[in-house]
Amino acid sequence: MEEKKIKQTAGRDALGEFAPLFAHFNDDVLFGEQWNDEAISVKTKCIVTVVALVSSGITDSSLAYHLSNAKKNGVSKAEIASVLTHVAFYAGWPKAWAAFRIAKEVWGKTENEG
Fold first, then answer.
1. What is the longest distance spanned by two Cα atoms in the chain?
2. Which of 22, 24, 105, 106 has the CB geometry, 3.0–4.6 Å to 67, for a possible disulfide?
3. What does each C-alpha distance from 28 to 8, 23, 65, 71, 109 come to in angstroms?
4. Cα gap 106→75, rounded to integer Å
5. What angle (nearest 5°) sits at the alpha carbon of residue 28, between those of residues 107 and 16?
6. Domains in the chain, please, with CATH?
7. Residue 71 and residue 47: Cα distance in Å, rounded?
8. What residues have CB less than 8 Å from 47, skipping those under 6 apart?
9. How many angstroms separate the CA atoms of 114 and 61, rounded?
């Protein structure tokens, strides 16, 4: 099954005039090329990205976006809970707590299954 090509405009939308080169790298290289590379699935990329952000202590709108993207690309609630529990041991308990707060909002408190 061929995955839908990812297209991003957030860089140009937010920084196009202020930092056009950064916007190009964000939209065309990171999302246009790297996210569309087929060596690993988009679902796996989503998990790796969440782990990288949590490990770096990034728990702002970037993490919320990438958690939502993970859910959209098939990461279940059970999977994200397991991923965040696992990464807590390597990246730090407080970072995982912060990530869980956002993940609960993304997956919802009443969702029975992932």
1. 45
2. 106
3. 8, 8, 18, 23, 36
4. 11
5. 90
6. 7-37 (no CATH), 41-107 (1.20.1290.10)
7. 10
8. 70, 75, 79, 83
9. 22
Q: Which long-range contacts (CB under 8 A, 24 or more apart) does 99-108 make?
A: 99/50, 99/54, 99/59, 99/63, 99/67, 101/59, 102/59, 102/63, 102/64, 102/67, 103/67, 103/77, 105/64, 106/64, 106/67, 106/68, 106/71, 107/71, 107/77, 107/80
Please give the model's pTM, rounded to 2 decimal places: 0.86
Q: 111 in helix, strand or coil?
A: coil
Contact predicate 107/72, CB 8 Å: no
Q: pLDDT per residue over 50-88, tens digit each?
A: 999 999 999 999 999 999 999 999 999 999 999 999 999
Taking the C-alpha atoms of residue 33 and residue 7, their distance in angstroms, rounded to an integer, is 9
Dist. CA 74–CA 43, nearest whole Å? 6
Return the percentage of the chain with pLDDT > 90, whole number.
Answer: 83
Q: Which two tokens stand for residue 42?
A: 């988009």
